[in-house]
Design a protein that fits this description.
two-stranded antiparallel ribbon, 68% helix
Protein backbone atom coordinates (compact mmCIF):
# COMPACT_ATOMS: atom_id res chain seq x y z
CA UNK A 1 0.00 0.00 0.00
CA UNK A 2 1.93 3.05 1.18
CA UNK A 3 4.17 1.94 3.97
CA UNK A 4 7.68 0.70 4.05
CA UNK A 5 6.96 -1.90 6.67
CA UNK A 6 9.91 -4.19 7.08
CA UNK A 7 8.42 -7.36 5.71
CA UNK A 8 11.49 -9.38 6.63
CA UNK A 9 10.57 -13.01 6.04
CA UNK A 10 10.65 -14.88 9.29
CA UNK A 11 13.05 -17.77 9.17
CA UNK A 12 10.50 -19.67 11.16
CA UNK A 13 7.23 -18.75 9.51
CA UNK A 14 5.26 -21.83 8.62
CA UNK A 15 6.00 -22.89 5.07
CA UNK A 16 3.32 -25.29 3.92
CA UNK A 17 3.41 -27.64 6.83
CA UNK A 18 5.62 -26.72 9.74
CA UNK A 19 6.37 -23.69 11.86
CA UNK A 20 10.08 -24.25 12.46
CA UNK A 21 11.81 -26.24 9.80
CA UNK A 22 13.83 -24.56 7.14
CA UNK A 23 16.58 -22.48 8.70
CA UNK A 24 19.65 -24.08 7.02
CA UNK A 25 21.76 -23.27 10.07
CA UNK A 26 19.74 -25.74 12.11
CA UNK A 27 19.15 -28.50 9.53
CA UNK A 28 19.67 -31.97 11.02
CA UNK A 29 19.00 -35.62 10.45
CA UNK A 30 15.85 -35.35 12.57
CA UNK A 31 14.33 -32.55 10.49
CA UNK A 32 15.35 -34.25 7.24
CA UNK A 33 13.58 -37.46 8.26
CA UNK A 34 10.51 -36.05 10.00
CA UNK A 35 9.58 -33.09 7.80
CA UNK A 36 8.57 -35.21 4.78
CA UNK A 37 6.31 -37.32 7.00
CA UNK A 38 4.59 -34.21 8.35
CA UNK A 39 4.19 -32.74 4.87
CA UNK A 40 2.52 -35.95 3.69
CA UNK A 41 0.19 -36.02 6.69
CA UNK A 42 1.74 -39.16 8.16
CA UNK A 43 1.56 -37.91 11.73
CA UNK A 44 1.69 -41.28 13.49
CA UNK A 45 4.82 -42.21 11.54
CA UNK A 46 6.34 -38.82 12.34
CA UNK A 47 5.66 -39.31 16.05
CA UNK A 48 7.15 -42.80 15.91
CA UNK A 49 10.30 -41.52 14.22
CA UNK A 50 10.64 -38.72 16.78
CA UNK A 51 10.19 -41.26 19.57
CA UNK A 52 13.14 -43.25 18.19
CA UNK A 53 15.40 -40.23 18.35
CA UNK A 54 14.28 -39.30 21.87
CA UNK A 55 14.85 -42.87 23.07
CA UNK A 56 18.49 -42.47 22.04
CA UNK A 57 18.79 -38.96 23.45
CA UNK A 58 15.97 -37.45 25.57
CA UNK A 59 17.61 -34.04 25.16
CA UNK A 60 17.59 -34.07 21.36
CA UNK A 61 16.48 -30.48 20.70
CA UNK A 62 15.44 -31.09 17.11
CA UNK A 63 13.29 -34.06 18.08
CA UNK A 64 11.53 -32.09 20.82
CA UNK A 65 11.05 -29.18 18.45
CA UNK A 66 9.56 -31.43 15.76
CA UNK A 67 7.07 -32.82 18.27
CA UNK A 68 5.63 -29.32 18.39
CA UNK A 69 5.46 -29.13 14.62
CA UNK A 70 3.52 -32.40 14.48
CA UNK A 71 0.97 -31.08 16.98
CA UNK A 72 0.54 -27.85 15.02
CA UNK A 73 0.17 -29.41 11.62
CA UNK A 74 -2.30 -31.99 12.87
CA UNK A 75 -4.32 -29.16 14.41
CA UNK A 76 -4.29 -27.17 11.16
CA UNK A 77 -5.45 -30.20 9.22
CA UNK A 78 -8.51 -30.36 11.50
CA UNK A 79 -9.00 -26.60 11.25
CA UNK A 80 -8.48 -25.79 7.54
CA UNK A 81 -7.98 -22.16 6.57
CA UNK A 82 -8.45 -22.58 2.83
CA UNK A 83 -11.93 -21.67 1.63
CA UNK A 84 -14.16 -18.93 0.25
CA UNK A 85 -14.79 -15.95 2.48
CA UNK A 86 -17.01 -12.89 2.31
CA UNK A 87 -15.29 -9.52 2.47
CA UNK A 88 -16.28 -8.00 5.81
CA UNK A 89 -14.28 -4.81 5.25
CA UNK A 90 -16.97 -2.12 5.06
CA UNK A 91 -14.79 0.53 3.41
CA UNK A 92 -16.12 1.87 0.12
CA UNK A 93 -12.56 1.68 -1.20
CA UNK A 94 -12.52 -2.12 -1.16
CA UNK A 95 -15.27 -3.32 -3.48
CA UNK A 96 -14.36 -7.01 -3.64
CA UNK A 97 -17.25 -9.29 -2.67
CA UNK A 98 -15.00 -11.96 -1.21
CA UNK A 99 -12.02 -14.15 -1.90
CA UNK A 100 -10.93 -17.73 -2.23
CA UNK A 101 -7.77 -18.49 -0.32
CA UNK A 102 -6.37 -18.76 3.16
CA UNK A 103 -7.52 -16.64 6.04
CA UNK A 104 -5.08 -15.63 8.75
CA UNK A 105 -3.95 -18.76 10.56
CA UNK A 106 -4.71 -19.09 14.24
CA UNK A 107 -3.87 -21.55 16.96
CA UNK A 108 -6.07 -22.34 19.93
CA UNK A 109 -4.67 -21.48 23.34
CA UNK A 110 -4.70 -25.14 24.43
CA UNK A 111 -2.69 -26.26 21.41
CA UNK A 112 -0.31 -23.31 21.75
CA UNK A 113 0.39 -24.23 25.37
CA UNK A 114 1.17 -27.83 24.40
CA UNK A 115 3.63 -26.72 21.74
CA UNK A 116 5.12 -23.97 23.89
CA UNK A 117 5.88 -26.47 26.65
CA UNK A 118 7.93 -28.53 24.21
CA UNK A 119 9.77 -25.56 22.75
CA UNK A 120 10.55 -24.16 26.18
CA UNK A 121 12.16 -27.51 27.00
CA UNK A 122 14.24 -27.05 23.86
CA UNK A 123 15.39 -23.63 24.98
CA UNK A 124 16.19 -24.92 28.46
CA UNK A 125 18.65 -27.26 26.74
CA UNK A 126 19.97 -24.77 24.16
CA UNK A 127 18.94 -21.16 24.71
CA UNK A 128 20.87 -19.99 21.66
CA UNK A 129 18.48 -21.50 19.13
CA UNK A 130 17.24 -18.45 17.23
CA UNK A 131 14.76 -20.47 15.17
CA UNK A 132 13.01 -21.82 18.27
CA UNK A 133 12.94 -18.45 20.03
CA UNK A 134 11.30 -16.89 16.97
CA UNK A 135 9.02 -19.88 16.49
CA UNK A 136 7.75 -19.53 20.05
CA UNK A 137 7.07 -15.82 19.53
CA UNK A 138 5.27 -16.55 16.26
CA UNK A 139 3.21 -19.24 17.99
CA UNK A 140 2.08 -16.84 20.71
CA UNK A 141 1.13 -14.24 18.08
CA UNK A 142 -0.97 -16.74 16.13
CA UNK A 143 -2.69 -17.77 19.36
CA UNK A 144 -3.25 -14.09 20.30
CA UNK A 145 -1.44 -14.66 23.59
CA UNK A 146 -0.24 -11.11 24.12
CA UNK A 147 1.31 -11.34 27.56
CA UNK A 148 3.16 -14.54 26.72
CA UNK A 149 4.47 -12.94 23.53
CA UNK A 150 5.65 -9.83 25.36
CA UNK A 151 7.51 -11.97 27.85
CA UNK A 152 9.07 -14.02 25.05
CA UNK A 153 10.29 -10.89 23.26
CA UNK A 154 12.33 -9.98 26.33
CA UNK A 155 13.72 -13.50 26.61
CA UNK A 156 14.57 -13.50 22.92
CA UNK A 157 16.46 -10.22 22.98
CA UNK A 158 18.46 -11.31 26.03
CA UNK A 159 19.27 -14.73 24.56
CA UNK A 160 20.19 -13.47 21.08
CA UNK A 161 22.36 -10.39 21.62
CA UNK A 162 24.00 -10.71 18.20
CA UNK A 163 20.89 -11.46 16.14
CA UNK A 164 20.49 -8.95 13.33
CA UNK A 165 17.32 -6.88 12.88
CA UNK A 166 15.47 -8.78 15.59
CA UNK A 167 13.15 -5.82 16.09
CA UNK A 168 11.82 -6.28 12.55
CA UNK A 169 10.71 -9.81 13.41
CA UNK A 170 9.09 -8.47 16.56
CA UNK A 171 7.18 -5.93 14.48
CA UNK A 172 5.82 -8.75 12.37
CA UNK A 173 4.49 -10.47 15.50
CA UNK A 174 2.77 -7.25 16.57
CA UNK A 175 1.14 -6.81 13.17
CA UNK A 176 -0.19 -10.37 13.36
CA UNK A 177 -2.51 -9.18 16.13
CA UNK A 178 -3.79 -6.35 13.97
CA UNK A 179 -4.33 -8.71 11.01
CA UNK A 180 -6.52 -10.80 13.30
CA UNK A 181 -8.63 -7.86 14.44
CA UNK A 182 -6.73 -6.97 17.61
CA UNK A 183 -5.42 -3.48 16.91
CA UNK A 184 -5.06 -2.42 20.55
CA UNK A 185 -3.06 -5.54 21.34
CA UNK A 186 -0.79 -4.83 18.37
CA UNK A 187 -0.15 -1.35 19.77
CA UNK A 188 0.60 -2.82 23.20
CA UNK A 189 3.19 -5.16 21.70
CA UNK A 190 4.85 -2.28 19.85
CA UNK A 191 4.98 -0.23 23.06
CA UNK A 192 6.68 -3.10 24.84
CA UNK A 193 9.15 -3.26 21.96
CA UNK A 194 9.97 0.39 22.59
CA UNK A 195 11.05 -0.57 26.10
CA UNK A 196 13.47 -3.06 24.55
CA UNK A 197 14.60 -0.64 21.81
CA UNK A 198 13.99 2.84 23.28
CA UNK A 199 16.01 4.72 20.65
CA UNK A 200 15.21 2.66 17.58
CA UNK A 201 13.76 4.79 14.79
CA UNK A 202 12.47 1.72 12.97
CA UNK A 203 10.18 0.65 15.82
CA UNK A 204 8.73 4.16 16.10
CA UNK A 205 8.27 4.20 12.34
CA UNK A 206 6.39 0.90 12.29
CA UNK A 207 4.13 1.97 15.15
CA UNK A 208 3.42 5.26 13.36
CA UNK A 209 2.59 3.33 10.18
CA UNK A 210 0.23 1.04 12.10
CA UNK A 211 -1.59 4.01 13.62
CA UNK A 212 -1.82 5.70 10.23
CA UNK A 213 -3.11 2.58 8.52
CA UNK A 214 -5.91 2.36 11.06
CA UNK A 215 -6.84 6.04 10.86
CA UNK A 216 -5.36 7.23 14.17
CA UNK A 217 -3.71 10.25 12.61
CA UNK A 218 -2.62 12.24 15.65
CA UNK A 219 -0.84 9.23 17.10
CA UNK A 220 0.71 8.50 13.70
CA UNK A 221 2.04 12.05 13.48
CA UNK A 222 3.40 11.92 17.02
CA UNK A 223 5.30 8.66 16.61
CA UNK A 224 6.53 9.57 13.14
CA UNK A 225 8.00 12.78 14.55
CA UNK A 226 9.84 10.72 17.18
CA UNK A 227 11.03 8.26 14.54
CA UNK A 228 12.76 10.89 12.40
CA UNK A 229 14.34 12.52 15.45
CA UNK A 230 15.67 9.22 16.83
CA UNK A 231 19.14 7.85 16.26
CA UNK A 232 19.99 6.89 12.68
CA UNK A 233 16.66 6.66 10.83
CA UNK A 234 17.03 4.67 7.63
CA UNK A 235 15.63 5.32 4.16
CA UNK A 236 12.49 3.29 4.91
CA UNK A 237 11.72 5.49 7.91
CA UNK A 238 12.25 8.71 5.96
CA UNK A 239 10.19 7.37 3.05
CA UNK A 240 7.29 6.59 5.35
CA UNK A 241 7.68 10.01 6.96
CA UNK A 242 7.35 11.82 3.63
CA UNK A 243 4.13 9.96 2.94
CA UNK A 244 2.54 10.30 6.37
CA UNK A 245 3.48 13.94 6.93
CA UNK A 246 2.19 14.91 3.47
CA UNK A 247 -1.13 13.14 4.01
CA UNK A 248 -1.43 14.99 7.33
CA UNK A 249 -0.56 18.31 5.58
CA UNK A 250 2.55 18.63 7.77
CA UNK A 251 4.54 19.82 4.78
CA UNK A 252 7.58 21.25 6.54
CA UNK A 253 8.31 17.93 8.20
CA UNK A 254 7.62 16.10 4.95
CA UNK A 255 10.13 18.29 3.11
CA UNK A 256 12.72 17.78 5.83
CA UNK A 257 12.25 14.00 5.64
CA UNK A 258 12.59 14.20 1.85
CA UNK A 259 15.92 16.01 2.24
CA UNK A 260 17.23 13.29 4.52
CA UNK A 261 15.95 10.61 2.16
CA UNK A 262 17.78 12.28 -0.74
CA UNK A 263 20.96 12.29 1.30
CA UNK A 264 20.69 8.55 1.94
CA UNK A 265 19.63 7.73 -1.62
CA UNK A 266 22.15 10.12 -3.13
CA UNK A 267 19.57 11.79 -5.35
CA UNK A 268 17.73 15.11 -5.47
CA UNK A 269 14.10 14.11 -4.98
CA UNK A 270 13.75 16.75 -2.29
CA UNK A 271 14.09 19.47 -4.95
CA UNK A 272 11.11 18.04 -6.83
CA UNK A 273 9.15 17.81 -3.59
CA UNK A 274 9.89 21.43 -2.74
CA UNK A 275 9.03 22.51 -6.29
CA UNK A 276 5.64 20.80 -6.03
CA UNK A 277 5.06 22.26 -2.57
CA UNK A 278 5.93 25.83 -3.59
CA UNK A 279 3.85 25.47 -6.74
CA UNK A 280 0.85 24.29 -4.70
CA UNK A 281 1.14 27.47 -2.60
CA UNK A 282 1.23 29.71 -5.66
CA UNK A 283 4.88 30.74 -5.23
CA UNK A 284 6.84 31.34 -8.45
CA UNK A 285 10.18 30.13 -7.06
CA UNK A 286 9.14 26.53 -7.71
CA UNK A 287 10.50 26.75 -11.24
CA UNK A 288 14.06 27.28 -10.01
CA UNK A 289 13.86 24.08 -7.94
CA UNK A 290 12.42 22.20 -10.90
CA UNK A 291 15.21 23.36 -13.19
CA UNK A 292 17.85 22.40 -10.63
CA UNK A 293 16.25 18.97 -10.19
CA UNK A 294 16.35 18.37 -13.94
CA UNK A 295 19.96 19.55 -14.12
CA UNK A 296 21.13 17.04 -11.50
CA UNK A 297 21.82 13.38 -12.29
CA UNK A 298 20.88 10.18 -10.49
CA UNK A 299 17.17 10.84 -10.09
CA UNK A 300 14.29 8.39 -10.36
CA UNK A 301 12.98 7.90 -13.90
CA UNK A 302 9.33 8.43 -12.92
CA UNK A 303 10.24 11.63 -11.10
CA UNK A 304 12.09 12.86 -14.17
CA UNK A 305 9.08 12.16 -16.39
CA UNK A 306 6.87 14.14 -14.03
CA UNK A 307 9.32 17.02 -13.81
CA UNK A 308 9.64 17.29 -17.60
CA UNK A 309 5.86 17.44 -17.95
CA UNK A 310 5.73 20.26 -15.43
CA UNK A 311 8.04 22.37 -17.59
CA UNK A 312 5.26 22.46 -20.20
CA UNK A 313 2.76 23.83 -17.71
CA UNK A 314 3.61 27.52 -17.99
CA UNK A 315 0.17 28.39 -19.37
CA UNK A 316 -1.71 26.58 -16.57
CA UNK A 317 -3.45 24.38 -19.11
CA UNK A 318 -6.01 22.01 -17.56
CA UNK A 319 -5.20 19.35 -20.14
CA UNK A 320 -1.60 19.38 -18.95
CA UNK A 321 -2.84 18.91 -15.39
CA UNK A 322 -4.75 15.77 -16.37
CA UNK A 323 -1.70 14.46 -18.23
CA UNK A 324 0.49 15.10 -15.20
CA UNK A 325 -2.01 13.26 -12.99
CA UNK A 326 -1.67 10.19 -15.17
CA UNK A 327 2.13 10.23 -14.85
CA UNK A 328 2.53 10.95 -11.13
CA UNK A 329 3.43 7.67 -9.43
CA UNK A 330 3.54 8.72 -5.79
CA UNK A 331 0.46 9.62 -3.78
CA UNK A 332 2.19 12.43 -1.92
CA UNK A 333 2.94 14.01 -5.30
CA UNK A 334 -0.72 13.70 -6.29
CA UNK A 335 -1.75 15.57 -3.14
CA UNK A 336 0.46 18.53 -4.00
CA UNK A 337 -0.59 18.50 -7.64
CA UNK A 338 -4.28 18.49 -6.69
CA UNK A 339 -3.73 21.38 -4.30
CA UNK A 340 -2.15 23.40 -7.09
CA UNK A 341 -5.04 22.60 -9.41
CA UNK A 342 -7.63 23.55 -6.79
CA UNK A 343 -5.97 26.96 -6.56
CA UNK A 344 -5.49 27.37 -10.31
CA UNK A 345 -8.88 26.03 -11.48
CA UNK A 346 -11.18 26.89 -8.55
CA UNK A 347 -14.40 26.12 -10.42
CA UNK A 348 -13.34 22.75 -11.79
CA UNK A 349 -14.87 19.71 -10.15
CA UNK A 350 -12.08 17.19 -10.82
CA UNK A 351 -9.15 18.48 -8.73
CA UNK A 352 -11.35 19.21 -5.73
CA UNK A 353 -12.96 15.79 -5.83
CA UNK A 354 -9.66 13.99 -6.43
CA UNK A 355 -8.02 15.78 -3.50
CA UNK A 356 -10.91 15.01 -1.16
CA UNK A 357 -11.02 11.41 -2.36
CA UNK A 358 -7.36 10.73 -1.67
CA UNK A 359 -7.63 12.32 1.76
CA UNK A 360 -10.69 10.17 2.42
CA UNK A 361 -8.76 7.05 1.46
CA UNK A 362 -6.12 7.92 4.05
CA UNK A 363 -8.84 8.87 6.53
CA UNK A 364 -7.84 12.50 6.90
CA UNK A 365 -11.43 13.61 7.22
CA UNK A 366 -10.49 17.05 8.52
CA UNK A 367 -9.25 17.70 4.99
CA UNK A 368 -11.80 15.78 2.92
CA UNK A 369 -15.07 16.71 4.61
CA UNK A 370 -14.90 20.49 4.00
CA UNK A 371 -14.17 19.90 0.31
CA UNK A 372 -17.03 17.41 -0.07
CA UNK A 373 -19.31 19.87 1.71
CA UNK A 374 -18.45 22.62 -0.79
CA UNK A 375 -18.94 20.28 -3.73
CA UNK A 376 -22.25 18.96 -2.39
CA UNK A 377 -23.56 22.53 -2.18
CA UNK A 378 -22.97 23.16 -5.88
CA UNK A 379 -26.00 23.24 -8.17
CA UNK A 380 -24.12 22.92 -11.46
CA UNK A 381 -23.19 19.22 -11.18
CA UNK A 382 -25.08 16.41 -12.87
CA UNK A 383 -26.76 13.61 -10.92
CA UNK A 384 -23.92 11.13 -11.30
CA UNK A 385 -21.31 13.55 -10.04
CA UNK A 386 -23.50 14.65 -7.16
CA UNK A 387 -24.14 11.07 -6.06
CA UNK A 388 -20.44 10.27 -6.33
CA UNK A 389 -19.66 13.19 -4.04
CA UNK A 390 -22.36 12.20 -1.54
CA UNK A 391 -21.14 8.61 -1.54
CA UNK A 392 -17.63 9.56 -0.47
CA UNK A 393 -18.95 12.28 1.83
CA UNK A 394 -21.25 9.79 3.58
CA UNK A 395 -18.40 7.34 4.05
CA UNK A 396 -16.26 10.02 5.70
CA UNK A 397 -19.00 10.52 8.30
CA UNK A 398 -19.69 6.79 8.62
CA UNK A 399 -16.08 5.83 9.22
CA UNK A 400 -15.49 8.66 11.68
CA UNK A 401 -18.55 7.75 13.75
CA UNK A 402 -20.72 10.75 12.82
CA UNK A 403 -23.69 8.55 12.07
CA UNK A 404 -26.45 11.19 12.01
CA UNK A 405 -24.67 13.10 9.23
CA UNK A 406 -23.87 9.85 7.41
CA UNK A 407 -27.46 8.60 7.55
CA UNK A 408 -28.83 11.82 6.09
CA UNK A 409 -26.58 11.31 3.07
CA UNK A 410 -27.21 7.54 2.80
CA UNK A 411 -30.95 8.27 2.66
CA UNK A 412 -30.45 10.39 -0.42
CA UNK A 413 -28.50 7.58 -2.09
CA UNK A 414 -31.00 4.72 -1.62
CA UNK A 415 -32.48 5.38 -5.07
CA UNK A 416 -29.15 5.65 -6.91
CA UNK A 417 -28.90 3.96 -10.31
CA UNK A 418 -25.42 2.82 -9.30
CA UNK A 419 -26.09 -0.47 -7.51
CA UNK A 420 -22.83 -0.36 -5.54
CA UNK A 421 -23.80 3.05 -4.16
CA UNK A 422 -27.42 2.05 -3.52
CA UNK A 423 -26.49 -1.20 -1.79
CA UNK A 424 -24.00 0.61 0.46
CA UNK A 425 -26.65 3.14 1.43
CA UNK A 426 -29.32 0.61 2.40
CA UNK A 427 -26.76 -1.62 4.15
CA UNK A 428 -25.53 1.19 6.40
CA UNK A 429 -29.09 2.37 7.08
CA UNK A 430 -29.97 -1.21 8.01
CA UNK A 431 -27.04 -1.31 10.39
CA UNK A 432 -28.22 1.93 11.98
CA UNK A 433 -31.72 0.48 12.48
CA UNK A 434 -30.13 -2.56 14.12
CA UNK A 435 -28.11 -0.31 16.39
CA UNK A 436 -31.31 1.38 17.50
CA UNK A 437 -33.03 -1.96 18.09
CA UNK A 438 -35.51 -1.68 15.22
CA UNK A 439 -35.04 -5.15 13.74
CA UNK A 440 -38.08 -4.90 11.49
CA UNK A 441 -36.81 -1.73 9.84
CA UNK A 442 -33.30 -3.18 9.57
CA UNK A 443 -34.59 -6.29 7.84
CA UNK A 444 -36.60 -4.16 5.42
CA UNK A 445 -33.46 -2.27 4.42
CA UNK A 446 -31.36 -5.41 3.98
CA UNK A 447 -34.02 -7.10 1.85
CA UNK A 448 -33.94 -4.25 -0.65
CA UNK A 449 -30.64 -5.57 -2.04
CA UNK A 450 -30.11 -9.04 -0.54
CA UNK A 451 -31.64 -10.86 -3.53
CA UNK A 452 -28.81 -9.43 -5.65
CA UNK A 453 -26.04 -10.55 -3.32
CA UNK A 454 -23.69 -11.40 -6.17
CA UNK A 455 -23.74 -7.84 -7.51
CA UNK A 456 -21.88 -6.03 -4.73
CA UNK A 457 -20.09 -6.45 -1.44
CA UNK A 458 -22.79 -4.55 0.43
CA UNK A 459 -25.56 -6.68 -1.07
CA UNK A 460 -23.64 -9.75 0.12
CA UNK A 461 -23.33 -8.27 3.60
CA UNK A 462 -27.07 -7.51 3.55
CA UNK A 463 -27.80 -11.08 2.47
CA UNK A 464 -25.74 -12.34 5.41
CA UNK A 465 -27.81 -10.17 7.76
CA UNK A 466 -31.09 -11.49 6.33
CA UNK A 467 -29.92 -15.05 6.84
CA UNK A 468 -28.82 -14.23 10.36
CA UNK A 469 -32.38 -13.13 11.12
CA UNK A 470 -33.69 -16.39 9.67
CA UNK A 471 -31.37 -18.40 11.91
CA UNK A 472 -32.52 -16.49 14.96
CA UNK A 473 -36.13 -17.49 14.29
CA UNK A 474 -35.39 -21.23 14.19
Amino acid sequence: MLFLYRTVLLCLAFCGSVLISFNPAFASEVTDKVNPLIEQGHFDEARAKIKEYLAKNPKNVDALMMQGNVILQEYWKREPTLGSYANDNESIYDSSIGFIGERERRVSRDVALQVAALWKRCLAIDNTREDIHKGLAYLYAMALMKQELIQQLGHMKAALPHAKELQYNMGDYARMFNARGRFNDAVDVFREMLKLYPNDANVYNDLAALYFLEGHLKEAQRYMAIAVSSAHPDDATYGTAVMIFTMLTDYDRALDASKHLSRLKKDNRWLLYRALLLRSKGEVSWKADLSEFLRQSGNDADDLTLAKLLTNDSKNNFDVYTEVMAKAKKNYQLVLLHRWAMRTFPTRYEPQFKYAEIMNQYRNYDESVPVFKRLAARSDLDTDKRQTILFHYAWAFQDSGRLAQANALWNELTTSNNFYVKSAAVYFLGKEALRKGDNEQALAYFRRVSDDASKSKYATLAWNKVNWFKEQKK
